[in-house]
Amino acid sequence: MSGVWGNKIKLSIFGESHGKAIGIVIDGLKAGTEIDVEYVKKQMKRRAPGFSKLSTPRKEQDEFEILSGYFNGRATGTPLCAVIQNSNTHSKDYEKTASLLRPGHADFTGRVKYRGFNDYRGGGHFSGRLTAPIVFAGALCRKILEEKGIFIGSHIKSIGTIEDIKSFNFTSIEKSSLEKLSENKFPVLDENCGEKMQQYILKVKEEGDSLGGIVETAVINLPSGIGDPFFDSVESTISGLLFSIPAVKGVEFGEGFNISKMRGSEANDEYFMSDDNSIKTYTNNNGGILGGITNGMPLIFRTSIKPTPSISKTQKTVDIEKREDTLLEIKGRHDPCIVPRAVPVIEAAAALSLLNLME
């Protein structure tokens, strides 16, 4: 199994959803890098479960303990290891259905891959619980980027069929607007649309079902010249880490799939000299990236999140031990919509990817 990611900054995550703890080892942080613990706690709290009627009732504080690579408030330059205890597990919820393959989950593929030795409780190592260490590492990188004047923010573009009528202005985004979104538990650009989305989630929750959605993310003040063509492009690096997040099913940059409907004369971002004597583009259909390299315009991408696969509706499945068809009713505590809690994870992936390309 490959549990390692990165080139200049390397990550290794470990643990299972219902194990004693989850955690991460980070290699490549420069010696002397300041570790703002309160900043990291703030980012972790954005992802933590159990603090909203829109999330799972499983309440985890996501408090972390740094075991190594940290001394007197700074990184030592040696591997930094942090652990997060699992304290609110209901493992018995999974015992009666251990041999039943949950539709939409990795039960079948995980069992095949690991010959039946995988921990099935709460999804084990496949669980979204493992995104907490990613947010921890992303917070460290995000703080470093902010010190360089680079800021990341997101808004929920859609939940199910309900879409935010507003999008980011691809050519001009204020730092204050991104900071405001980061303070919002349900970040949207249009509050009325946001209220409709939340009511929709609660309605579907009562029906025993779930919803997915799309998150639109922006990174501003990136200098031009970050990234490489082909294998280490900005798109491939960010996408690779985004697709490591459970439930992510699609990623697009700039106008994404819509750009295929345009003519070249419409899709091309024409240049001009700005008042500060820098080169800008009138439009930003390519999302701030050309040839896999940043061009100085805002980096824009959208991430598609599938509906939470754990639902209380009766579903058709297979009992893998008996090798026969059966029905499944999933018990336990689950998010009716994972999108709001996925926002800080997506931003963490962006921060990790960009710093990995810059350092």
Q: Mind telling me the CATH class?
A: Alpha Beta
Q: What spatial order of strands do you see in the largest sheet?
A: 1-2-3-7-4
- CATH topology grouping: Chorismate synthase, AroC fold
Provide the number of structural domains: 1
Anisotropy-based shape: globular
CATH architecture: 4-Layer Sandwich
Order of helices and strands: EEEHEEEEHHEEHHEHEHEEEEEEEH
Helical content band: 25-40%
Task: Name the CATH superfamily classification.
Answer: Chorismate synthase AroC
Count helical runs: 8
Percent of residues in β-strands: 15-25%
The beta-strand count equals 18
Name the poorly predicted regions. Answer: none
Radius of gyration from CA coordinates: 21 Å
Structural class of the secondary structure composition?
Answer: alpha+beta
Distance between the amino and carboxyl termini? 27 Å
In brief:
By secondary structure, the chain is α+β, with helices and mostly antiparallel strands. The protein is built from 8 helices and 18 strands. A hairpin with a 2-residue loop joins strand 14 and strand 15.
Topology summary:
Blueprint: E1 4-5, E2 10-15, E3 21-27, H1 37-47, E4 64-68, E5 70-71, E6 74-75, E7 80-85, H2 107-113, H3 131-147, E8 151-159, E9 162-163, H4 175-183, H5 191-206, E10 213-220, H6 234-242, E11 248-253, H7 264-267, E12 271-273, E13 279-281, E14 289-290, E15 293-294, E16 299-305, E17 315-319, E18 324-328, H8 339-358
Antiparallel strand pairs: 1-2, 2-3, 3-7, 4-7, 5-6, 8-9, 8-10, 10-16, 11-16, 12-13, 14-15, 17-18
